[in-house]
Amino acid sequence: MLRSSYSLGVLTVGLALSTFGRGTGGGQAAGRTVTLERTVHALQRGIIPAEGQSPDSLERKRRDGLQRIVSSDRGAAAGAAYVPGRVLVKFKDDAPSSARTLAVSAASARARATRATLSATRPSHANFDTLAIGELDDPEAVANALRQRTEVEYAQAAYRVRRRFVPDDRYYPLQWNLPLIDLERAWDLQPAAGSTKIVAVLDTGIAFADATIGVHAYAFVDGDGIAYPALGDLTLRFVAAPELGSSSRFVDPYDFIWNDNAPVDMDGHGTHVAGTIGQLTNNGSAGGDSANGGGTAGVAFNVKIMPVKVLDGPWDIIFGSPYEGTDDTVARGIRYATDRGAHVINMSLGRTGPPSPVVEDAIRYAVGRGTFVAIAGGNGYEDGNAVEVLAEIASRVPGAVSVAAVTRDRQRAYYSTTGSYIELAAPGGAFDSQGAKGGILQQTLDLDLVDRFLLPPSQFSAPRFDALAYYYFTGTSQATPHVSGLAAMLMQQGVGSPAAVEAALEQVAIDLGPPGRDPTFGYGLVSARAALRGLGLAR
Amino acid sequence: MRSAALVFLLATAAAAPLHAQTTTVAEPGGLSIRPYAALSMQRFAADATFDAIFGSATGALPGGGVLVTRRRLFVEVEASRFRRNGERAFASDEDGFGVGIPLTVTITPIEITAGYRFRQQRFSLTPYVGAGLGVYRYREESPAAEPGEDVSATHAGWVMMAGAERQLHRYLAVSADLRYTHVPGILGQGGLSEAVGESNLGGLAIRFRFIVLR
């Protein structure tokens, strides 16, 4: 799990828990009772981002400056574009046809139009007429001349109206990370946004279903040697994150930590990652998360999500989960997702240390069966910059990529590990110079109610997994789902092989740092529109 | 360049007089102007690029021109056109793969070629060789393009050819020749051609002509 930190001043604590009664992979398994249901509703608590985005921000200017002009259009003086060859004109009702004809003749002569012919029939659902002029004539000049005539109420060129898909989710303006990879124009190319593809999220689970789960909370001692009491038997309520969509969106969920089919998130990391991949988008005015006006947007917002829990969080440990987040668990998760038809596997996880042949074997198995794999490059730059073992595997397997993190100004995030194995970069954010808003915003569990183990033993209490909030996270964990979502969109577009997806992403990546591939950014920052649009012969 | 050398060798071989023969069509002593229609089947030198985008590196270029002869010398001016729809693509290793975004490419060569017509040979064939220059207009359009993303470029190139002509009728002759064109400056500076390292928009073509005799 490569989340480096999250907002509200709460730093991720490397909780070294020594537990009592914890099973060890295949041994005495602690039990839990799971009841999946759809009857409870998430408590929407804590909207972390409250301020609007600065109107002079680069992202805002980029959005406002979006132009979608087809090649036959011409540029107008005011920066708009018009279709050549015609002018729209509305004559005053009392203008006789002879006066209209005279007005057209005079105006076209004044504007030096080569021809000007009023359409014999008015377009349907129109109270104006269309004047055909020469392809090379200036329709704005003709319209100006027409407007001088007393018979004319108004006249204008046929300015191009274009689709501008900017999601209406309430917090989308805070998601600098999506415009940074040119995603808005990519959505214009592919409105379906990966609708037939499955992305497996190998993580801490996902808040994907409403459920009631009975567990036993054992006593434990934290990394500082402080003893926490047992909470005994607990019945915990879990809710689905409404912004991840209905239950039909999730396919083949599985929990390799508890060895059942209820990979609920008891940490918040997996839900956040899944949101960046596929959070419901443009649902701000269509119901959605009504309390938050659609909340945030995701990259491939129509993909199906396969929750595969391969990482254990502190509560999994306290509850005595039978399995842990180890190489074998991850390898089984990769093979499971592949066998269940995942097109993309997102692995916002990693480790340093000795090689992992078991995971490498699984990654090669996945890629060999057509599944693209994206792996976090690691957050350990300031901790010795050790080689991330799983990410390093990706660099040797065409069809698997390792992902570094950049900030909103396209600089290396201070934590992002560097090395020759880095292949691509994506927004991971940083809090250092830009505050919390430099992070990646998504909905996840309300961490105030989850991370109760961070409190002193006297205040320690059972967690709640039925409340959600929007948090800024940073890390290569947050960068990786951008690549996974984009890979799903590429596959949606017909790029079938994982190696081809990787080649596409790398060939059009925006080169950052020294020219060419480098250890910091790899081939560069992923570029969504360029990847979906592909290359022509000459450009 | 290997293809160019091959063309030259073919031309040289075809031009060698085999033996004395009877001339059935008199070589015109004065100026002769002959319009013709042509069809070239070209194998583009940028074969990886064309193959990825169009599924084939071969294309037809219909066209027409005027052949002017005086004694054994000739000059011809020809315009032709290649237009094909494909899809934008990437290349991975040796393979190309499309991404489903349509692409239309139009190439309009205008070439002027001068050469030498040999004595008529067996089967009433008149071999010829020639070389010349061309102006090649290139357009690349995609419906998803934003301003500046489509390509419209023109560049000069050169052509060399060798072939033979045969008179079929008092007013009609046919010819077939091999042509090699080299067109730098358009490909290789962006797009897929840059990614795969191809920079020649030309290629090797076989051209058939129907020539009107007057």
How far apart the termini of chain A lie comes to 39 Å
Distance between the termini of chain B: 37 Å
Biggest β-sheet strands, sense, barrel of chain B: 8 strands, antiparallel, barrel
Multimerization state: heterodimer
Largest interface: A-B, 32 and 40 residues
**Overall morphology of chain A:** elongated
Overall shape of chain B: it is elongated
* Order of strands across the main sheet of chain B: 1-2-3-5-6-7-8-9
Mean pLDDT of chain B: 87
Radius of gyration of chain B: 19 Å
> What integer is the average pLDDT of chain A?
84
List SSEs of chain B in N-to-C order.
Answer: HEHEEEEEEEHE
Total number of β-strand segments of chain B? 9
Q: What is the helical fraction of chain B, as a range of percent?
A: 10-25%
Overall structural class of chain A, as computed from helix and strand content, comes to alpha/beta
Low-confidence residue ranges of chain B? 1-26
Total helix count of chain B?
3
Content-based structural category of chain B: mainly beta
Beta content of chain A? 15-25%
General description of the model:
- The complex is a heterodimer of chains A (539) and B (214).
- By secondary structure, chain A is of the alpha/beta class.
- Chain A is 23% helix and 20% strand.
- In chain A, the strands form 5 sheets. In chain A, strands 15-16-10-17-18-19-20 form a 7-stranded parallel β-sheet, with helices on both faces. In chain A, strands 5, 6, 7, 8 and 9 form a 5-stranded antiparallel β-sheet that branches.
- In chain A, helix 2 crosses helix 3 (139-147) and helix 8 runs parallel beside helix 9.
- The longest helix of chain A is centred in the last third of the chain and has 17 residues, at 476-492.
- Chain A starts with a strand and ends in a 6-residue tail after the last helix.
- Chain B is mainly beta.
- In chain B, 13% of the residues lie in helices and 59% in strands.
- Chain B has helices at 2-15, 47-54, 191-196, and strands spanning 31-44, 58-70, 73-80, 82-92, 95-117, 125-141, 151-169, 172-182, 203-212.
- In chain B, strands 1-2-3-5-6-7-8-9 form an 8-stranded antiparallel beta barrel.
- The relative contact order of chain B is 0.22.
- The A-B interface holds A 67-71, 73, 75, 81, 185, 188-189, 398, 490, 493-497, 499-500, 502-504, 507, 532-539 and B 46, 49-50, 53, 87-93, 95, 97-101, 103, 105, 138, 140-147, 149-151, 153, 186-187, 189-193, 195.
